[in-house]
Amino acid sequence: MLKRSRRGALGLVPIFVFLILIPCVIAAVPAPSRPEPTGALNIDLRLLGVIPDVGNRDSAVARIQVTLESFVSTAGVELEVGTWDGPSAPKDRKGFAPGSLRWERARPIEPQEASSGSVSLRRGESARTVVEVPLTGLAVHEVIVSGRAGGPGGTLTTEGMIKVPFGVPLPLPEDDGTVSQYRAVPAQEVRP
C-alpha cells in the first residue's frame, strides 16, 4: 500500500506558484522608459554634475552627457550648446561653441574624426560625449543642445533641453489627484 503524505503534495505548491507567479510578475513590470526617437537623429541629455566656481559663488560649470543616436548613416556630426535666460524669446538664447569634443562609440574613432572633433555614425549606432556649460547666477538654467549631421537626404537636425539647478531646487509639480502640473516660477534668478 502506498501512503501519500500531505507534505509531498504541499511541496508541489511552491513550485506551481513559482512557475505561474514569476512569469506574470516579469510580464507586468514595464521596461525602462526611453524617449522615443523623433526623427532620423535622436539626442539624449543627462546631467552628470554641477561644479561650482571656487572664486565666484554665482558661477559654475554643468557637465552634461550628450548621446546622439542615428537611424540612418550620417557624417560630420556637430553640436551647438546654448542656455535660455528668457521666457520664450529666441533672442534670449545664449549660444557658444562646445570646444573640442571627445566622442565615444562602440567601434573605434578614426584618427581623422578625432582630429576634426566630428564623427560619422552608421545606421542604428550611437556616440557619446560630455560638454561643459558655464552657468551664471543662482537659478534653474535651461541648457539646449542641438545636433546636426549630414544624412542621405540632406542635413539632419535634432535638439534636446535639460534643466540644470544651480543654487536653487527644481520646482516640484503640483498634484491635486487628477491633474499634475508645474507651478510657474516668478523669478528664475535668486539673489541672497
Question: In brief, what are we looking at here?
Answer:
The chain is an alpha+beta fold and 192 residues long. Helix content is 15%, strand content 43%.
What does the secondary structure layout of this molecule look like, with pairings?
Layout: H1 6-28, E1 41-52, E2 59-70, E3 75-84, E4 93-96, E5 104-105, H2 111-116, E6 126-136, E7 139-151, E8 154-166, E9 173-175, E10 180-182
Antiparallel strand pairs: 1-2, 2-6, 3-4, 3-7, 5-6, 7-8, 9-10
Explain what the structure shows.
- Strand 7 (139-151) and strand 8 form a beta hairpin.
- The protein is 15% helix and 43% strand.
- It contains 2 helices and 10 strands, in the order H-E-E-E-E-E-H-E-E-E-E-E.
- It has helices spanning 6-28, 111-116; strands spanning 41-52, 59-70, 75-84, 93-96, 104-105, 126-136, 139-151, 154-166, 173-175, 180-182.
- It has a domain at 41-168: Immunoglobulin-like, CATH 2.60.40.10.
- Residues 86-91 and 186-192 have low confidence and may be disordered.
- With 192 residues, the protein is of the alpha+beta class.
- The strands form 3 sheets. A 4-stranded antiparallel β-sheet has the order 1-2-6-5, with no helix packed on it. Strands 4-3-7-8 form a 4-stranded antiparallel β-sheet, with no helix packed on it.
Main features:
192 residues; alpha+beta; Immunoglobulin-like; 4-stranded antiparallel sheet; 43% strand; disordered C terminus
